[in-house]
Amino acid sequence: MGNFAANEGLSIFVILVWLGINAYLFVQFYFNFLTDKWFYTRVLLGHALSWARAPAAALNFNCMLILLPVCRNLLSFLRGTIQCCSRTAARQLDRNLTFHKLVAYMIAFHTAVHIIAHLFNFEYFMDAQLNRNSSLLTFVLSEIGTNDSLPFLNPIRTNETNPTIVMFTTIAGLTGVAITLALILIITSSMEVIRRSYFEVFWYTHHLFVIFFIGLVFHGYGRIVRGQTSDSLNISNPKICAEQFKTWGQNGSHCEIPVFAGNPPGTWKWVLAPMILYVCERLVRLYRSHQKVVITKVVMHPSKTLELQMKRKGFSMEVGQYVFIQCPSVSRLEWHPFTLTSAPEEDYFSAHIRIVGDWTQALYEACGGDKNETQEAWKLPKVAIDGPFGTASEDVFRYEVVMLVGAGIGVTPFASILKSVWYKHIQNNQEVFTKKIYFYWLCPETQAFEWFADLLQSLEGQMAEKAMTDFLSYNIYLTRWKETEAAHFRVHHEAVNDPITGLKQKTLYGKPNWDNEFTNIASNHPGTKVGVFLCGPPQLGKSLEKQCLSHSEADVKFIFNKENF
């Protein structure tokens, strides 16, 4: 239970506070529209009025939050600021995209409720105009503003129209349609299958958020939903005057014709500050994109992985950080995130890019990957860099014992860590807090090992020379190979070093038995906090997080950290 609190306690607290504020705003604004000010509006609309306004308040709150988790520079600043005080709080910032998605789902939910309620409202408005009977209060209320100079209550001014026409001829209607269409496109294109297979679609449609926020700010300027003014309430109590509507404004009557007004638009008060923050964020990115970046070396690895080694004046990084890369010759609008595989001690920074889509294929070709001859330096494409930005892996040297789990190309942040280990321990003889690293690399095929094997071989040899073989324990798994196939392969390739990786540590086949691995680590390191770092698929993350919770006891705790960008 204690480890669950350490891993998830603050996250659950944040989510509960967020849900509590949503619930409070919904309930508060629901009852706000049950007051006397909205008495006559409810005569026309019933409780659909409250059902429309309550989610609108919650929408304002969530739209205030939605931009904050994607202000990468702000998050990096906050992470660096609070890291020295609370590692747990800093770790919550690594879940920014998860929170961003939760807020988006909440926006979608409240938008749906808001739209459905307003569809009922417009039908009620229309019905009040169609039932042209002066003995009905609904008709009398709908006629206010027709033959006099008073403000209207019913925005549908004639019975010769329909709600659809009103929807496309009012500010609220037009902006509402624009907001809804933008939101539908943003959410549908964010599905994982679209994001992974057609990243460009996801990237471009996400920028419809500009239309969404412009529409959101102007949505309430039409003041279609109106309530009785305070002055009118003081003169004519609706609970009394509603029964005397036939004598409103006549001599001897104590009830004047009610006067109505809409609330001034207030959405801008909610979203102005985050919009300014986001504009500043984009200005910082724009400034960085114009800083000169030089590609010093391009390496084409056999597994169709492109390695770019680059330099930029003033560039400073930590282990496990990532950058966004733009290549103007490929696309001037697209920025893609890549983990840095270089160490902070090196005089350049590098990224390994697996060729899996249109953009990466175009970059591969621009760098000469499809050519046999060496690409001349002046022919290499220009690139722009935004970052670096912090991730969970920055905390790796804050734990005495560390588990690093990488799947496929997900090994990239750990390349930076292991390189940094090499520089700190072997080259500079620096002492670090971390005393033991368990490294697990899961790959489906042998080709994926090629670009990383050299680093592991170098580490293995150097640590053997320094008598530090106990510092790094690594296990490499070929997940798509069965043990029977592997046995046949080993018979024909008996050697001191592994025939696939060239390492003394033999490659394992199949998937790790995580229960055994965690049990062994727990027994080897009692009384310690073990940092578990993953860069891989969500299914693997769920499995490791479950193991962290089930294997944590009073004397050992597993703290789960996942790369999330």
**What ranges have pLDDT less than 50 throughout 5 or more consecutive residues?**
none
Strand content: 5-15%
Mean pLDDT: 81
Give me the number of helical elements.
Answer: 21
Structural class: alpha/beta
Strand order of the largest sheet: 12-11-10-9-13-14
The level of helicity is 40-55%
* Global shape: elongated
Q: Report the span from N to C terminus.
A: 29 Å
> What is the radius of gyration?
31 Å
Biggest sheet record: 6 strands, parallel
- How many strand units? 14
Domain module tally: 3
What does this structure look like?
- The chain is an alpha/beta fold.
- It folds into 3 domains: 1-170 and 222-285, no CATH class; 291-371 and 378-389, Elongation Factor Tu (Ef-tu), domain 3 (Beta Barrel), CATH 2.40.30; 393-449 and 457-481 and 496-562, 3-Layer(aba) Sandwich (Rossmann fold), CATH 3.40.50.
- Helix content is 48%, strand content 14%.
- It has 21 helices and 14 strands.
- It has helices at residues 2-32, 39-45, 48-65, 72-82, 87-92, 96-130, 137-143, 163-167, 171-188, 192-197, 199-206, 209-218, 230-235, 238-241, 267-289, 358-366, 412-427, 450-465, 483-491, 514-524, 538-551, and strands at residues 226-228, 260-262, 293-301, 305-312, 322-326, 336-339, 349-354, 384-389, 401-407, 436-443, 472-478, 508-509, 529-535, 557-562.
- It has a 6-stranded parallel beta sheet with strand order 12-11-10-9-13-14, sandwiched between helices.
- Strand 13 (529-535), helix 21 (538-551) and strand 14 (557-562) form a beta-alpha-beta unit.
- Helix 3 runs antiparallel to helix 6 (96-130), helix 3 (48-65) packs parallel to helix 15 and helix 6 (96-130) runs antiparallel to helix 9 (171-188).
- The chain is elongated and about 105 Å long.
- The chain starts with a helix and ends with a strand.
